[in-house]
Amino acid sequence: MKILLTGGAGYIGSHTYLALMGSGHVPVIFDDFSNSSPKVLERLERISGQAVVCERGSVADSALVQGLMKRHAIEAVVHFAGFKAVGESVAQPLKYFDNNLVGMTRLLQAMDATACRTLVFSSSATVYGDPASVPITESFPRSHTNPYGHTKLVIEDMLSALQKSDPAWKVAVLRYFNPVGAHPSGLIGEDPRGIPNNLMPFVAQVAVGKRPVLNVFGNDYPTPDGTGVRDYIHVQDLAQGHVAALQTLAAKGESFTVNLGTGQGYSVLDVVRAFEQASGRQVPVQFASRREGDVAQCYASTERASELLGWRAQLGLDAMCSDSWRWQSANPDGYA
Ligand code: WQD
């Protein structure tokens, strides 16, 4: 299928691009490069051995999107384009409501206008808020603790309203847990701008010597070692989950929502130890106070994804750390 990847030059998008190519699809990248580097495109060409088709612009530009959907005869859209920094969303909620919600609305209008009604949406485990228990199933109640998570929750509701209004819409909502790692070539990976919000890129930058120490946000949680527990999933597994979701949409023609996680929770200190093992470098830590909005534990039930998509994550924490290290050590300044 001809597939439009909005935000396809980003971290998840670029890895999904390669997974789709590897599965015989024809992906087209659409990106405004507000939170990604055009350098990714040449890296993707080096890895795939094929020219990358990329259009530059914003999903909010409905006329532009309609034109490229027709020009490329797009059959399905995978929507990655959106801002995703929790802390930034608290400081600048309007930036998030505009970019994530208005952008989604304009994209859906452009898809409807060109009769392309198959969508994979990049949602997040953040819609579960602070879960009452773990592992988390797709039927758990949703809530939000920050504007970023609120936009994901609102978009999920927009999509269910759209499907009720017109059953022609086929939508896969994928709730990512904690994406980490990099393509095994070390040529593409996570390249956060400024100080990393997320754990793994921060740990990698300490290991490579860019930062002196990791602040561990709280070691008094009700968890085995007192630090936060999350479901880290290798970005390569996550990318394959998108391929499986598209194939399921095409084969079954029904919309669905699934968790994309491993079902295994690891603490902050587990990740630090695994990264030291993988990199052969020390990662000094210091314990700091809890971060506003953090929860103690969050990891997925993977049964529904396995039954519905025939997909399970294959890679463990060691691969996540060694692939992340290969990317970081080969690109200490990311794509700069
Ligand atoms: C993981 C653990 C922190 C940094 C968020 C979003 C989610 C998704 C992934 C977008 C926690 C601890 C972290 C640090 C630390 N976002 N930590 N020191 O918060 O689970 O999820 O990012 O795709 O939607 O909610 O991920 O990597 O920020 O934190 O101790 O410098 O690491 O307290 O326990 P999180 P994270």
Explain what the structure shows:
The structure is a single chain. This protein is 41% helix and 17% strand. The chain has helices at residues 11-22, 39-48, 62-71, 86-91, 93-113, 147-165, 199-207, 235-252, 268-279, 303-309, 317-330; strands at residues 2-6, 26-31, 54-56, 76-79, 118-124, 170-176, 178-180, 214-217, 229-230, 232-234, 256-260, 266-267, 285-288, 297-298. The strands form 4 sheets. The chain has a 7-stranded parallel β-sheet, with helices on both faces. The protein has a 3-stranded mixed β-sheet with strand order 12-9-14. The longest helix is centred in the first third of the chain and has 21 residues, at 93-113. It is globular. The protein starts with a strand and ends in a 6-residue tail after the last helix. The model has no long low-confidence stretch (mean pLDDT 97). The site of UDP-4-deoxy-4-formamido-beta-L-arabinopyranose has 18 residues, from helix 7 and strand 8.
- Please state the second-level CATH architecture of the domain at 2-180 and 232-261: 3-Layer(aba) Sandwich
Q: Which residue ranges are poorly predicted, with pLDDT under 50 across at least 5 consecutive positions? A: none
Helical content (DSSP H or I, runs of 4+)? 40-55%
CATH class of the domain at 2-180 and 232-261: Alpha Beta
Beta-strand percent range? 15-25%
Q: Could you give the distance between the termini?
A: 33 Å
> How many beta-strand runs?
14
CATH topology title of the domain at 2-180 and 232-261 = Rossmann fold
Overall, the morphology is globular
Radius of gyration: 19 Å
| Number of continuous helical runs | 11
- The H/E string reads EHEHEHEHHEHEEHEEEHEEHEEHH
CATH superfamily of the domain at 2-180 and 232-261: NAD(P)-binding Rossmann-like Domain
Mean pLDDT: 97
Strand order of the largest sheet: 3-2-1-4-5-6-11
Q: How would you sum up the major sheet? A: 7 strands, parallel
The secondary-structure class comes to alpha/beta
Q: Which cofactors or ions or other ligands sit in this model?
A: UDP-4-deoxy-4-formamido-beta-L-arabinopyranose
